[in-house]
Amino acid sequence: MLRTLSLKLHAAVTGSYVPGTYSIVFVNCPNEQIARDIARTILDKKLAASVNILPKASSLYFWNGEIEEATEIMLLIKTKTSKVHMLSSYVRSVHPFEIPEVFSLPMDQGDVHYLKWLKESMEED
Length: 125
Description:
This protein is an alpha+beta fold and 125 residues long. It has helices at residues 2-14, 32-44, 84-94, 112-121; strands at residues 22-29, 50-63, 66-80, 102-106. The chain has a 4-stranded antiparallel β-sheet with strand order 2-3-1-4. A hairpin with a 2-residue loop joins β2 and β3. The protein starts with a helix and ends with a helix.
């Protein structure tokens, strides 16, 4: 905890990036229209700065003890790590899957200009 505080203080003074401040959230959707609807609302709610919609990923997974296969659309959502919980709750509330795939990975490094843009894009009006 002391290390985290010292990293945040150092970042505030120097303007450097604290690893883990931002995350990439992965969400699979059953089709492109649902993916677009979810992505647009996430942006409208300022829960993320950017969403990539990746076409047609083949998924194989266990469901009810059987191996299932499906074609899904993947969202790559760039957001503040502090917003991941709210974003996940929103996705669960609108997603048609019984258990939607929602998980995140922290961003360790990134271009300073891109990270600044992420921050500015999610600021409240």
